[in-house]
Amino acid sequence: MPTDIVMPQMGESIVEGTITKWLKKPGDKVQRDEPLFEISTDKVDAEIPAPASGVLQEIKVVEGNTVQINTVVGTIAADGETMASSPVPAKAAAPAPVVPVKAPASPAPAQPAAVSTHSRDEGEDFRSSPLVRKMAREHNVDLAQIPGTGMGGRITKQDITAFLDRVETPATPARPSASSAPASRPATPAPVAIPGDAVPLTNMRKIIAQRMIESRRTSAHVHCMFEVDITRIVNLRNKTKNAFEQRHGARLTFMPFFVRAAIIGLQQFPIINASLDGETIRYHRHVNVGIAVALDWGLIVPVLKGADELNFLGLQRGISDLGERARSKKLKPEEVEGSTFTVTNPGQFGAVFGLPIINQPNSAIMGVGGITKAPLVVTDKDGNDSIAIRSVVHLTLGYDHRLIDGAVADQFMAFVKKTLENWSEEVG
Fold it and tell me: Whole-prediction pTM value?
């Protein structure tokens, strides 16, 4: 009997996923736990392993389609088992039986209420995901007007997207009809785009866009910047990095220095580590640091939970582990949730500094600029000034002025600056 390949549940709140890429084609041999296809959800992008060894027999859901969790998306035949011949090629076979048709083929530009084909009582609890409800709020859409095509009548993202296309896009004679439904559009851009191409946004890009706009609308963004002399840290790292790697099997980077200094500062100024919940300030018991990771296909912020309870080595290992698994699509949904403060590093690409957008529901985000050498005025213990070549970094803090006053933000950053410039902690 063939083994079914299903859309996995990647977290309690996730009810659907989009297949962005099949890593094998029908007829290819696969090994159990070998990466088989990639999915995108409203939390993470992830590689999904094969549930069994054998031969990929059939792809039931092609790239670009969104389906409910536990939907069968393909099958694997055991080694030696005869593959069932299918009268329909894999590329053409999939979406129709898995993703139901969501709209009449030729709707006239009608009033929104006329679109609904299912009568529902007012006040009924419409089954939908948080992402669907968020889209409905943003577009002022009554979910009662949308027939759900998901399991148990659940309204899917494709349902609301199709509804918005019909209602918000004026019909023109030149516009294609049924073939342009959102379910048939590819979710990922072509591998190579040239000037003049029109490429659809990836699922991750859409989510990033939504969250950035929401953050700007939610928080009263203010930024401050501090110049920090980290010559002491640069010299310490240059002196100990080889021994550190040999002893611990991990590279010694600059990021744990900045994260550790921020944690110490957050313990002194807990309002920076707090969140605004309606008219209540929620002070978090621990520091969960979000570490922004730039990917070839977007940006993700995995979270180092309980970072205040880790020593320097624990911070280095945790940061490296999250970064590596983010780039290899091995993160779990819970690992991108629950941050209380975020650190981002635009300096790795040469930026002098950045003005980052707050990662909601955090109240602050620290940006780390590039480390450069610059002439600075240095004052010795006797009060004498001289000019010296020093290693300098510019740190910025983006903070929510609804919760954090400028004086407190500046005091926090001055504390971080002092901690870095007078670094005395052992690195292990």
Answer: 0.65
Polymer length in residues for the chain:
428
Edge to edge, the sheet with strand 29-30 lists 3-6, 72-77, 54-59, 29-30
d(CA 55, CA 312): 46
- Among 294, 270, 391, 280, smallest CA distance to 344 is for 294
Structure-block tokens of residue 81? 């088992």
Compute CA 185 distance to the chain's CA centroid, rounded to the nearest angstrom. 22
Which residue among the candidates 33, 165, 405, 410 is catalytic per the annotation?
A: 405
Q: What is the pLDDT of residue 136?
A: 81
Identify whether 401 is a catalytic site residue. yes
Token output for 291? 């570490």
Please answer whether residues 262 and 396 qualify as being in contact, where contact means their C-beta atoms are separated by less than 8 angstroms: no
405: annotated active-site residue: yes
Please provide the DSSP assignment of 54-113 as one string.
EEEEEESS-TT-EEETT-EEEEEEPTTPPPPP-SS-HHHHSHHHHS---S-SS--S--GG
3-state secondary structure 240-285: HHHHHHHHHCCCCCCHHHHHHHHHHHHHHCHHHHEEEECCEEEECC
How far are the Cα atoms of 76, 237, 239, 421 from residue 234, in angstroms, in the given order?
A: 53, 5, 9, 10
Cβ–Cβ contacts within 10 Å for residue 349, how many? 9
Listed residue (295, 419, 314) closest to 366, CA to CA: 419
Cα–chain center distance at 95 = 27
| Residue 76 β-bridge partners | 3, 56
Residue 160's contacts (CB-CB under 8 Å, 6 or more residues apart) are 132, 135, 136, 141, 143, 146
Q: How far is CA 263 from CA 38, 157, 202, 287, 322, in A?
A: 35, 39, 34, 7, 18
Full DSSP string of 164-194: HHHHHSPP-TTS--GGG-GGGS-SS--SS--
What are the pLDDT digits (tens) for 206-252?
Answer: 888 989 999 999 999 999 999 999 999 999 999 999 999 999 888 99
3-state secondary structure of 52: coil
